[in-house]
Amino acid sequence: MIKPFVHRNLPRLLLQARESVMAHTRPGLREHGLSDQQWRVLRVLGEHGTVETGRVAREAFILGPSLTGVLARMERDGLIRRERDPQDQRRSVVEATARGLKLVEKLSRTIEAHYDWMEQSLGKQKLAQLYQLLDEVIELEQP
Fold first, then answer.
1. φ and ψ at residue 95, rounded to 5 degrees
2. Sheet of strand 80-85, all strands in order from the earlier edge strand to the far edge
3. CA-CA 20 to 30 A from 136: which of 84, 98, 113, 129?
């Protein structure tokens, strides 16, 4: 017989929390034909401008092979532009097109409104505490 776990299943709780938050976001994304991964890419580009492909993969939490397909579809749909890095021709950089940036602006209003609602529901201090605790867990688990 297996000894029962003492602690709650943190990875499952984090996934459940993510899915709860995304349940509010996904309908808006789907309305614009975006997947979760495509939105993460657009958000990175909206926050940082032109970004090296490897950084997009890291910040959007998308593995390289998957990112290639995601970027190809986004480029086909006119949301992003890819080109060789002028400083290092071996690397590629990605930037959002005007259409992609317009989508980021539009969706960010809805998403920020949801975060405002969360802040009102939980309280500013609790939400700040949640962000701080998540940052600490991420830092703690870094190799």
1. -140, 150
2. 51-52, 88-96, 80-85
3. 113
